[in-house]
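Quick question about two entries, pasted in order.
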Amino acid sequence: MADKYPEFLLRLPNGGPVARGRQLDEMGTNGSRKFTVGPGQPVRLSVVPSFARQLPSAHRLRERLIADGLIKSSAHWTDHLETTGEITFNSPSEASAVLTGSSTNGWLAWKTQDGRPLGDYMPGASWGANRAWLVRGSNVTGLDLVRRVWLPEGRVSLAGSRLRQGVEQGISKEQVRILVEEGYESTATYSQKQQLVDDVHAFLSRMKAGDTVCTISGGRLYVGQITGDAEQTESEDRRANLRRPVTWQETGHPYDELPEELQQKLSIQHDVVELTAVQAVIDGLGLTDEELAEEAEVIERDPSAEIPAIAVRRELELPVPTDELAADLLVHETEWLREMRDLLWDERQLVLYGPPGTGKTYLALQLAEFFGGGPEQVKLVQFHPSYAYEDFFEGFRPQEDPETREVAFRLTAGPLRELADLASREGNRHIPHFLIIDEINRANLAKVFGELYFLLEYRNKSVRLTYSGDDFALPPNLFVIGTMNTADRSIALVDAAMRRRFAFVELSPRTQPTSGLLRRWLTSQDKVSEPADLLDALNSRISEPDFRIGPSYLMKKSVYREGGLERTWRTKILPLLEEHHYGEGVDIEKRYGIASLRASLPDPLPEPSA
């Protein structure tokens, strides 16, 4: 039976010799296809330090083969061992692991003379790179199949109790749909049948030998490698009648200690979930950077390329604000900016609130660009009363077909979805991305955020989206800064749920850094201090803090042209106060006019005599 396959080659690490082996159709104890290696084949002398921990069964087999004399010191290759007789392994991965002394994927490591991997020759196997999967088995109609069957027997299974016999690996999704409709016509809802079609098709036709598989039981994540084909069996209780052989790592990983991006994917509530987007995270579980580097040496790879499992560990960081940044932003002290950084790091959502003209939007943009490393990682949206979830995240929008000129409603991503997709791309996950929401309190927040409200508080979870039906989570490197005008009475729309999910920082003319901002700006521009004196006098006459006037009205070049200060006061500042006192009969000019304020200022000190 071995002759139906070509001879496969395995290059040992660091330019070592090449071992040769044959694929068999004979099945091993758990349904894997066996693999044989003849006498006189090279074996690596040492093993990587993590080998016994990652693949204890392969490590024990290697030790037993050495003790039995089937592997001994080589007379042909320096610093290598060699096989002394024919050895039949349970799977190609077990063979490559024993020969290289490391956890390797035999379906990729064994190759033909012209470089094609063994996995390409397996019947019914899907094409393409290896994937990672989650299959749930801890509560299958009340039984924990993980501990009872999967781990001890080396398998993973899926319940297809009402599927008729004859279901085969490689079946098309349409064929699965027909079988599910036939078997579950009156026993499952429409959505249940749709999900079962997806799960069964993934299990039978998208998974393949060499893929990574994960499962959860008892608060721990267990990781293994699929080692063979899918089969349909006559299970006694039919809770596990679709099966695949798996080599499981013996030790699980505590769920609470898993990286956040992995927890997000694991929180998706389906029986079968693709985890390929976080495969590099899974590959690095329980291993140090040094151990990963040693394992990478065993695999034929581009030595200049970064090891994915190490690259994905690059820490997400927010730069520490500097004295230079504080000087550029005219902030009174660097420590205040560092507190903003700490709040963003701890909460990931921050609101700057205060009266108009206090520089909330400007400061939000400057902080986002500094922490994100540039404007490319920053997106700004402005809320308004008619803003909705469909504008903010995703919804159906009329779009014209460029060829037919016909208009149809198509699902369109909003600014948050676009930024989240950008932040979660491979290579971007360690780079902070910022969404600035200007006037955040002017929209109906519960309507705009929808189910995303939950994700703002629980970043390690995912939710099913309203329109697309995708499972979505906010990337850990996505930060949100909102601005809120407290003079706008729509602040009443900000409910307790919103306040719980955001840190709130006041920018007020009565407190730093806003109270002294105009005076610092005038000094930096070599201008007289009168505008700052006038603003202080004005705000001292306004009893309600939320209606005091911010300094940004007087931090523009137009203010300092001929007549500019008076013009700005008359057209920008006084109208705000007229609206505030509407119907109260207050003489705005007499109380807040620039002439009245000037008269209240102390006379300037006389110039010293020469």
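Here is the second entry:
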Amino acid sequence: MKSKSKLMPALLVGVSMSFTACSKPKSTSLEHVHFQQETVKKPIKKGGTLTVALENNSPFTGIFLEELQDTQPDEEASAPGEEGLFYADNNYKITNKGPAVLKLNRKNKTATIKLKKNVRWSDGKPVTAQDMYYSYEILGSPKVSTTQYTSSLENIVGLHSYHVGKSKKISGITMPDGRNGRTLVLHFKQMNPAMLQHDNGFFWEYAAPYHYLKDIPMDKLISSDKVRKYPLFFGPYKMDKTVRGQSTTWSRNPYYWQGQPNFKHIEMTTVSVSSASQAIKSRKFDIAGVLSEQFEDVKNTKGVNFIGRKTPFYDYLGFRVGKWDNKLGKNVQTPHNKMDNVSLRKAMLYAMNVDAVNKRFYHGLRYRLTTLIPSQFGVYHDKSISGYPHDLKKANQLLDKAGYKKRPGASYRSQPNGKKLVINLAVRDTQQNVEAIWTNYIQQWKKVGLDVKFVNGRPMEFNNWVESIKASDPKIDVFEGSWDPSGDPSPSVFYGEKMPYNFSRFTSPTNTQLLDDIDSTKSFNKNYRIQKLYQWQKWMYNHAYVAPLSGSYSITAVNSNVSNWSKQPSANNWYEAGFSK
């Protein structure tokens, strides 16, 4: 299953292979979009080579260690081998069906993780308690810089002391059966209701091969050939070869704990977004994500089943008001920041014609969102919030009242202090019509007197965008991005004061308190948690440091000869799917 805290390359989820894939639509009417979530199950034959498209305009970076990965393209490229410790049901609740079993003890404030027998790395060595512990050593090492280390993990006793170099061991993680045993116990400062959900952020759901990587200095791991070229996995497949940024090839892991997967080989190849539609129509790949704006062009392709799912994924607009402080390990809001005016932020949002863009470019496969807790989270979503529908009159009123005036004869407004106002926008060059879509938004902002320009004059190459956003590049004022908060509705990992993924770099005692409340032991009471999530959604709506734009369907084109491929959260496609007889 896909990690929610990975930087995503596209404004849609259809390209995600690590989540699962699709089936023939019950209806292709885009007024009432409905897809089957899995292909028809047919008898499967062993063997064959599955070809998979990795749809990106940028090469994947080739970091094949979960603890160091922070982009979705890397995760997709490593998906056939990269298996987590836990499986989840279709509501993202952790089950006992995966490689490890989880037991929580609220009274003792512990989580016990026990590996099943015969879980082995692709070199035949058993996965051990030491491997699980080693993941935390990598994440928390002062010599490792990774966005996967968050303040949520600091709820584990002793992890913060290890992270800042005050201790050489993590006191709150024990191995009762020894390093070579199969049991790890995590001791928490407090328990959290999200801990029963997949990808909850309060403990790590992967292991790293200690026996294989132990001799590599922590600060050299990310550049090591054992991470970049010859990684080990304990999933269904082992990596045979990678051409950095372009392809990965796989064969069966002979030591996989569930037995032999169905496909004999898997070949994954990077395909540009502009070529994706033709690749599907020519049936070049067995599995390919479908770009929302291309579905009309490919939906009648013969020999292909389209399966889809409405996901919690959303894309957003963020306003940079601060920076990340490495020494303090937290976000710091900077004074006198250009975007630190709530009226300016709201005016930009009301000026955006999101509904028109979704209709024009996405044919009903994308839809405007109103809060940062998508409706897929049911009762946790506050449906009373209307969001920011297109309203140029309201945008102009907000700017006028806040003192953003036009000088006589000027096309654009000035700042309230009289200085020129130019807003620099960072957009990922990751989809077919990205420049047209965001040029449209720039024109909408011009209608209300705001001078918005692309950083460096055009949309940014994805990997450059990632590095610039992570570094809080001062050239960037406003940026678009996307998250997939599958698992638990808690928004802490994206918007907390000590969270690297809070790319707007905003901080507030109120925000911190609400996020703490959402993740507190009091929130084991569902009604209390709903109340706090509603308060947080309203607070974010009122302050608009980050605002949702649209949700999306995730659609996958599947060769009709492939059976048992599914988009359900509980699916394990790499093991369960195969070619039909």
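Reply: The first helix runs from residue 72 to 77. Confidence is low (pLDDT under 50) at residues 10-31. Hope that helps.
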